[in-house]
Amino acid sequence: MKKIIIIFLLCISISCMFFGISKYLEYNNLNIESDDLSKMDKEIKFLDEKIKQKEEEYRKLQADNSSLLEELKIWEEKVKKVESYLL
Amino acid sequence: MGRKSKKSGKLFIVSSIFLLLISIIFLLAYFYFDTEIHKTDKKNGTIIKLKEEKNVLLTSKKEELSKIEANITELDDLETKLFNTKKKYYGTIKELEDQIISGKNDKKIAYLTFDDGPYYNTYKVLDILDKYGVSATFFTTTINGENCYDKKDTNCLVLYKEYVKRGHTIANHTFTHAIWRGLYKSADSFIEAVINQENQVKKYADGYKTNIVRFPGGSSTAGKLKTSIIEKLREKGYGWVDWSAQDGDGGSLKSTEEAWNNLKSSINQDIEVILFHDYSSITTEILPEAIEYLDSKGYVMLPLFYESNVINK
Ligand SMILES: [Zn+2]
């Protein structure tokens, strides 16, 4: 009788061990997402600043080059005109 | 026997408790890790979602940035683009010339050229050309110095920028234009006057490079020196051109009628290089009508360029 009880308890403890260990392994293999959100936030902030800076640069260039843009347009028109004389 | 059974009873109890404890410990471990797994899953889910959102944001920001950068590059390349457009323009004129010369195209070209400027009167000439959308060629000299010969209190060197701004070709008519005072003394003295004028144009027209020369008085004025001058011009990368038609404004024109007669009688080729002078009031007077006349005869009026068939090299 005692033997049966011991064997029963042994079985129970072995299965508990099995479940416990397998859960542990499952936990151990779990991919924990690294919390690099702050890194992304930093990158977004950096990009925002860069966009602002580049927009400023673009606006300045545009103002500086307005006459050049105008000139380019005129020459492009001239090309079209001469091209129209070709066969 | 009694002692033995007592001992085995104790062993049984100890073993049972031990096994039970083991079971409980592992069971607890099971639940602990299970809960941790659920917690991590939930946390992971939130992080992944946030990351996705931030990734979308990052991508759009990067796109925005590269768009602006592309715009900047385009503006940065504006000078190159302008240079290429001008190159294309002259390339197209060359193509047109070739078609005309080979008889395939019945269009005609008149290269209007104005010598001896800049003068104050040049503004009038430029305005007329602008009005008709015509580009021409100005063979410039510094014979008159800094101020306008026809308006002594006005700086004439500013006109160099004006030529370029309005899309005309600046060409070289030598710095001194001193036909009877040393220009044709030797090939070297001629070349020196060409280079001095080249530097003058470069200085006052923001680095503009002239590469077409017209001999003051025409190439025949150089006499025996002509061949050696041409040789030296070629070495320096210069082309040169005389003219095939004119209204005679370089001589003693008496009336617009005379100018008209000269001009009309000299125009008879499919490609004409017409000689005028910026200072001539008669030319300025007939210029609008002359442009209309040339237009009616099928001529398109274009600026000269080094690669043109009419430029001698
Ligand atoms: Zn001259």
Word description of this protein:
The complex is a heterodimer of chains A (87) and B (313). With 87 residues, chain A is mostly helical. Chain A has 2 domains: 1-30; 33-87. Chain A has 3 helices and no strands. The longest helix of chain A has 28 residues, at 2-29. Chain A is rod-shaped. The mean pLDDT of chain A is 89. In chain B, the strands form 3 sheets. In chain B, strands 1, 2, 5, 8, 9 and 10 form a 6-stranded parallel beta sheet that branches. Chain B is 57% helix and 13% strand. Chain B is of the alpha/beta class and 313 residues long. In chain B, helix 8 (256-266) packs across helix 9. The model of chain B has no long low-confidence stretch (mean pLDDT 94). The radius of gyration of chain B is 42 Å and the shape is rod-shaped. In chain B, a hairpin with a 2-residue loop joins strand 3 and strand 4. Chain B folds into 2 domains: 1-106; 107-301, TIM Barrel (Alpha-Beta Barrel). Classes of the chains: A mainly alpha (87), B alpha/beta (313).
The figure for the number of domains of chain B is 2
Q: In one word, what is the shape of chain B?
A: rod-shaped
Query: What portion of residues of chain B belong to β-strands?
Result: 5-15%
Class from helix and strand fractions of chain A: mainly alpha
Tell me the layout of helices and strands.
The complex is a heterodimer of chains A (87) and B (313).
Chain A: H1 2-29, H2 37-64, H3 66-85
Chain B: H1 2-76, H2 78-101, E1 108-117, H3 122-132, E2 137-140, E3 147-148, E4 151-155, H4 159-165, E5 169-172, H5 179-183, H6 187-204, E6 212-213, H7 226-235, E7 239-240, E8 245-246, H8 256-266, E9 271-277, H9 281-296, E10 299-301
Parallel strand pairs in B: 1-2, 1-9, 1-10, 2-5, 6-7, 8-9
Antiparallel strand pairs in B: 3-4
Helix pairs in contact in B: 3-9, 6-7, 8-9
The complex binds zinc ion.
Residues 115-116, 173, 177, 216 of chain B line the site of zinc ion.
